[in-house]
Give the backbone structure.
Amino acid sequence: MRCLSRNDLERIGERVVRSYRKLPEFNGKTIYSITPSVLIEKVLKIKMEYHHLSLDGSVLGVTTSYSDIGYRVFDIRDEEQYIYFDGKTVLIERDLKDDIALQGRRHYIEAHEAGHQVLSMLFPEDYNVSPQKLHFCMAEPVRSEINWKEWQADTLASVLLMPKDIVKQALFLFGFGETIPRINRVYSSEDYRRFSMMAELLGVSKQALSIRLSQLGLVERNDFDDPYSIIDVFNYGGM
């Protein structure tokens, strides 16, 4: 399998986003966020469909670069229905579309599956000879050895959703300047409020944005996962 670095994936994502910017509807306009469905359907020429992908909600997205592979969907209870892939289709869990509160998660899943499609177009010798024909995005990823194809799709998804220049533009729009001093919902509530508005503007989850800001070196201290970590410093050998 081809090994792509984060920098490789940044460059690939930037190329795709440049094509997105050239779409007629964005001509002469400032782009404040990336809409994955537009990127998928108009840039990549991939069909996107929404279905119930599992009975328990465990499967959020499925795609493949192969054709004539059947996948069972559960749109009608107690009735067997199958979607047959053509190599240019992405399936997304319908519940993600129906609930506006899940928009950030839906956009990430869409971009993740788009990432698989982009990589299969660029590197067919790696993607089209794999024994793993279907690529799943699960609600609860299985914790095991790193799956490099999934890591690459995840990394590419973050670039497609949050290109560096659009993220930096959002920082200025919300008054941060070049970096956010701290992401901490407890001790920096005003900065956190503006950070949350940034995530809403970009159409992503707060967690996804916090990770992307750290990757880009645009946050000085990131306490998103543990807002009380600063107390731990004081309690365990700080001052």
Observations:
- The radius of gyration is 19 Å.
